[in-house]
Design a protein that fits this description.
single chain; 76 residues; mainly alpha; 2 helices; 79% helix
């Protein structure tokens, strides 16, 4: 399957959204008090997984964007 530029933009947008929203989530998590340790562990794992997903989507988006910029006959 060949990804077009519009697909790359969507992937990059979702990656950026994950980073922005979970960066805010980190601040909210740091501002909480008197929670059990499991609460912090579970939310920290959630944040890490979402940053990994954002990194993967960002890599795919950059690759798709670069591939879409290449002329069609250059890939043959």
């Amino acid at each position: 399957m060949k990804l077009e530029r519009k697909h790359a933009v969507v992937l990059l947008g979702i990656a950026a959204w994950n980073v922005i929203t979970y960066a805010r989530f980190i601040k909210a998590l740091m501002d909480t008090e008197n929670r059990p340790t499991g609460y912090y562990v579970a939310h920290t794992i959630l944040i890490i997984v979402n940053f990994l997903i954002a990194a993967l989507l960002g890599i795919w988006g950059v690759r798709a964007y670069k591939e879409a910029k290449r002329p069609q006959n250059a890939s043959v």
